[in-house]
Amino acid sequence: MDMNHPPIPLPSSIRSRSIDGINGLTVHVLESGFETQGRPCVLLLHGFPELAFSWRKVMPALADAGYHVLAPDQRGYGRTNGWDTNFDGDLAPFRLTNLVRDALGVVTAFGHRSVAAVVGHDFGSSVAAWCGVIRPDVFRSVVLMSAPFAGPPQIALNTADTPPEPKREDPVHRELAALPRPRKHYHWYYSTREADNDLSHTPQGMHDFLRAYYHHKSADWKDNQPYPLKSWSAGELAKLPTYYVMDFAKTMPETVAEEMPSREAIAANTWLPDHELAVYSAEYQRTGFQGGLQWYRCGTSGAFTTELETWSGRSIDVPSCFISGKQDWGTHQRPGVFETMQKSACTRMLDVHLVEGAGHWVQQEQPGEVSRLLLQFLSAAGP
Known about the structure:
The chain has 2 domains: 14-152 and 305-381, 3-Layer(aba) Sandwich (Rossmann fold), CATH 3.40.50.1820; 172-292, no CATH class. The longest helix is centred in the last third of the chain and has 15 residues, at 367-381. Helix 14 (337-345) links the parallel strand 9 (320-325) and strand 10. It contains 16 helices and 10 strands. 45% of the residues are buried. It is an alpha/beta fold. The protein has helices spanning 59-64, 96-109, 123-134, 172-177, 186-190, 195-200, 206-216, 234-237, 252-257, 263-268, 274-287, 290-301, 305-308, 337-345, 362-365, 367-381; strands at 14-22, 25-32, 41-45, 68-72, 117-121, 142-145, 183-185, 245-247, 320-325, 349-355. Strands 1-2-4-3-5-6-9-10 form an 8-stranded mixed sheet, sandwiched between helices.
């Protein structure tokens, strides 16, 4: 490891490595199950605002079951470097197809031609989904966590005689702003020039910001009681908690500060005690958030939609499953996607699990149950 970085507090069964020359990056990877050769590989992809460290509690269980487990800090995050932090820099390296190329690069760097499963959480779920669409020969099964997949975007049909409608701006943003309690969607807030500065220079400090953010989206915040929304409309989206559909005038640190847990609650937190949260706060203090925010901008800009239309009409046809916290609004934050995933986007979805006692950070909040479900799926998905 780069000597400039303090060691990450990990169990002895997980080691930290830096691998050069992976699709233009030096990738920081946590590795477990490295003691013997020839093990099938499982690739774990974290989301926002997290790190490879988020998988620390499930890696030993997978390694004990005979897998070689790899968890990279993804492009834009943590101790992986070689990416551009500039808001005005090139967004293209952060688009989904290139994130799939990063994942493929990690797998092959460790000598694997295929993996038993790619497991993605939050935004990592999108990368895992596209791994399954683009290279099903390599990514032999797919586990999506907390963020369901709707399938590739559709190409418009019959445009030779009836030219397609020009893409109009989504009216939902104007409608949200015009509500009696004006609101805004966090994806679009995260796509603004101000977002990184807001998150990196918070009134409460990095550690307390992340504490409040992780608390607000966890099962510890008792108002996380998700249910399906009827439509992508301002009236329906306004039912989402403020970490997804924010008050219009507020930053994210101001939003979550209102739900900061008490000192007693923090002391009683067993799934993310302060010394583990300190790993995240130190890393984000150093890197800022722009690397992760670029992923949101790729989506909200629409710049790469036509590339994704290359796979229009394709589905995830390898064995798949979905795991989310029962108290996680992420399952329903895009109305209809949870249902579309099961109906058409994934043709061999073996299981859908909503884990009791977990909000958005399911593999940290309920690692024992997530490990059990992953091993059950790996066994069912077969070699």
